[in-house]
UniProtKB/TrEMBL annotation:
Protein's UniProt name: COBRA-like protein
PANTHER family (alphabetical): PROTEIN COBRA
One of the GO biological process terms: plant-type cell wall cellulose biosynthetic process
Main location: membrane
The keyword Signal is annotated on this UniProt entry: yes
Signal peptide bounds: 1-25
GO CC annotation, single: side of membrane
Origin species: Salix dunnii
Length: 415
């Protein structure tokens, strides 16, 4: 190979790597989705200020589940936290320079977590105390926000001397979000409860955090199998979809559900999955089954199985991409909202989620660890085809994470 050819090949390799890195956090089904942290200074104190910190989830379908969010940052100078309402700092740090009145937290890089719903009333503010859970914008917009209030000392006492915190980190509960720098924006306007008085924050900072599944986990979190009523062939979850049984890094390996030593479902907030022993080793398995193909309609049954002994999935949701959602007639066993893609006006994606107090909690692995729903589509003879796996989805997301699908050549034949 000539020197020019080698240089060209190296340049193409670098460009490919750069392109991949820049797009790994991009989600084609929710291109504008993000979590925005708003930091409002609402009053000044003799040695600092009081700030209202609010976390807004602007993502359509990705939510923050148990054990909830934690928010960290690094102070620009030697600030301390005198008190927190609606949340708590995880460590006090070294407060030896203070005598008498001791701050709540003296760490250079503090971390704040949410309080539980059982917190005393005098420790609560609006939108706090949900155990760190934040819903997605589509699923439950009223609970897509979380707040706490800080009293900050050893800080600036006016707009010219106060300094913006740096290195914001958002864990939900693990990694996955990358937060940009704090930006000064137009001050937030507040309305009193009786809507008769308007006030304004003295300063407002915004921090935008975006999600990357690659950062959240080195392995996928779910897989999908495909089947049809008129075919004995099943396209299973690909082997090692989430990890491999021989070389898996799952805590304590995996569990055979027929073993007499099947563990009691955990009541602790353990984020590392403990899964049933399967060829795919995924905590969540989705099955898309073509149940009916008649003259005018076709029907699909979707089964979601929780194979994780460590976790209940509260307020689970699915996002499915398929070209026939324009002809969706009825949904059984779940709620539904169409998602129009940024690049098209047609409806080829949908969000599905459980019905409250019926199937909105996907229980831990075992007999009750599954949920089912069905979709009825009107058949458009100008579009419907049984060729090339058209009746099966192009993408499936569970709780915002993309699931591994079988290869196209393994799809069942549909008559």
């Amino acid at each position: 190979m000539s020197l020019l050819s080698k240089s060209t090949a190296l340049l193409l390799f670098v460009l490919c790597c750069a392109s991949f890195t820049s797009t790994e956090a991009y989600d084609a089904l929710d291109p504008n989705g993000n979590i925005t942290v708003k930091w409002d200074i609402v009053s000044w104190t003799p040695d600092g200020y009081v700030a209202l910190v609010t976390i807004y989830n602007y993502q359509q379908y990705r939510h923050i589940q148990a054990p909830g969010w934690s928010l960290g940052w690094t102070w620009a100078n030697n600030e301390v936290i005198w008190s927190v309402v609606g949340g708590q700092t995880t460590e006090q740090g070294n407060c030896s320079r203070f005598k008498g009145n001791i701050p709540r937290c003296c760490k250079k890089s503090p971390t704040v977590v949410d309080l539980s719903p059982r917190a005393p009333h005098n420790q609560k503010i609006a939108n706090c105390c949900k155990g760190g859970l934040i819903s997605s914008m589509v699923q439950d917009p009223a609970n897509a926000v979380s707040s706490f209030q800080l009293s900050v000392g050893s800080a600036g006492t006016n707009n010219r001397t106060v300094r913006i915190p740096k290195n914001i980190t958002l864990n939900t509960p693990g990694p996955g979000y990358t937060c940009g720098p704090s930006r000064i924006v137009r001050s937030t306007i507040f309305m009193s409860a009786d809507k008769r008085r308007v006030t304004s924050a003295f300063m407002t900072w915004n921090i935008t955090c975006t999600y990357s599944q690659f950062l959240a986990s080195k392995t996928p979190a779910c897989c999908a199998s495909l089947s049809s009523f008129n075919s004995k062939a099943i396209a299973p979850c690909p082997t090692c979809s989430c990890s491999c049984r021989k070389n898996n890094t799952v805590s304590r390996g995996c569990v055979n559900p027929k073993s007499p030593n099947v563990p009691v479902p955990s009541q602790k907030n353990i984020t590392t999955p403990l899964v049933q022993c399967t060829s795919h080793m995924c905590p969540i398995k989705i099955q898309w089954h073509l149940k009916l193909n008649s003259k005018d309609y076709w029907r699909v049954r979707i089964t979601i199985r929780n194979l994780n002994y460590h976790m209940n999935y509260k307020q689970w949701n699915l996002v499915v991409q398929h070209p026939n959602f324009d002809n969706l007639t009825q949904v059984f066993g779940s709620k539904y909202k169409a998602l129009t893609l940024h690049s098209t006006t047609s409806n080829d994606a949908a969000m599905l989620w459980g019905i409250k107090d019926y199937n909105d909690v996907l229980m831990q692995a075992g007999r009750d660890g599954k949920a089912q729903l069905e979709l009825l589509f009107r058949k458009d003879n100008t579009a419907f085809t049984s060729n090339k796996g058209w009746a099966f989805p192009q993408r499936i997301y569970f709780n915002g994470d993309s699931c591994v699908l079988p290869p196209p050549d393994a799809y069942p034949m549909v008559a």
